[in-house]
Amino acid sequence: MKTMWKPGAMEIRDVEKPSIGPDEVLIKVNYVGICGTDLEIYRATSPIPIELPRILGHEFSGVVTEVGEEVTDVKIGEKVVSETGVVCRRCIFCKTGRQNLCPYRSPIGIGRDGAFAEYVKAPSINIHKIPSNVSLKEAALTEPLSVASHAVIERSGIRAGDTVAVIGAGAIGLLILECAAVAGAGKILVSGRHENRLEVAKNLGADVTVNERKENPVDKAMELTSGLGVDIAYEATGNPKAVEQAVSMTKKGGKVVLVGVHSKPLERFNIHNVVSNEKIILGCWTHASSTWDLALSLLSTGKVKADPIITHVLPLKEFEKGFDLLRTREAIKVLMKPNP
């Protein structure tokens, strides 16, 4: 758990097994991923408010071991994942299927204790059963895949044949790449700063990869589109420079889709480029309930492959190594096993 708001300050503690309410289930965690948000909390640089101490971890899969007395649709022994956001289900956003915008949203692993633990609890309404042909390991990527599929399929209005740029070759960026390919994108460019990640992007179907340490992604995007610019640029880094690149490489009337979580405000922004060229900027925040069914379907049908993105699996006690692998970008997605 994160104990104090300073870099590091995470430790393993013994705590009581969570007690569930009448509408909740208890899940024995098989796999839990370290997210970029977790890394920012670990570094104490995240812009997302969090009360401490807190058990982190919101990307997880596991097996139900207890159910509350009011739970009728989830059974002990079922393999499941859980939506991250615990929401009110009553506000205008929840009622219109936009649970990600609920003002009372309390995310597992941030607003309440998460899955960097042997057990985690969740409301039964948040639970999604894992298809029989999807492994618990693959299913642990349902949450980041929900982020990507929400951005690409539910928000961006992508059309078959669209030229696409993905800025950032981390787990979210690579899943955006896969979702764009599923949606019928034409040419897809992926930019990043680490060759190991760009190699995975090539294997997952990127037509062009750009190491921005060596080449300018905007120039490559213009080269790919004969100077026109891409139809849609997805920013998946949280780096202000990436937003500038996304706006610059998008064609007139094109779309910029902002997916990365930004810890600092954007200081420079050429708003005239947006206004005079009628570009569209879309913000994307996590996922809705419907997105989880979509993500699990993409995994079950094999349209999206999770295994190439999972580069390391560690026991929970090696969490510091996991964070270091992400910090150095040696890893793409680190999964931990609290119950080895």
Oligomer description: single chain
Shape: globular
Structural class: alpha/beta
CATH C-level class of the largest domain is Alpha Beta
Domains (count): 2
State which percent range the strand residues make up: 15-25%
What would the CATH topology of the largest domain be? Quinone Oxidoreductase, Chain A, domain 1
How many runs of DSSP E, i.e. beta strands? 15
Produce the secondary structure layout.
Layout lengths: L23 E10 L2 H8 L15 E9 L11 E4 L2 E2 L5 H4 L10 E2 L11 E5 L3 E3 L6 H4 L2 H14 L8 E4 L3 H12 L5 E5 L2 H9 L4 E4 L5 H8 L5 E6 L4 H10 E9 L12 H6 L3 E4 L5 H12 L9 E6 L3 H9 L5 E5 L3
Parallel strand pairs: 8-9, 8-11, 9-10, 11-12, 12-13, 14-15
Antiparallel strand pairs: 1-2, 1-6, 1-15, 2-3, 3-7, 4-5
Helix pairs in contact: 4-5, 4-10, 7-8
Summarize the structure.
Helices cover 28% and strands 23% of the residues. It is an alpha/beta fold and 340 residues long. It has 2 domains: 24-141 and 306-337, Medium-chain alcohol dehydrogenases, catalytic domain (Quinone Oxidoreductase, Chain A, domain 1); 148-283, NAD(P)-binding Rossmann-like Domain (Rossmann fold, 3-Layer(aba) Sandwich), CATH 3.40.50.720.
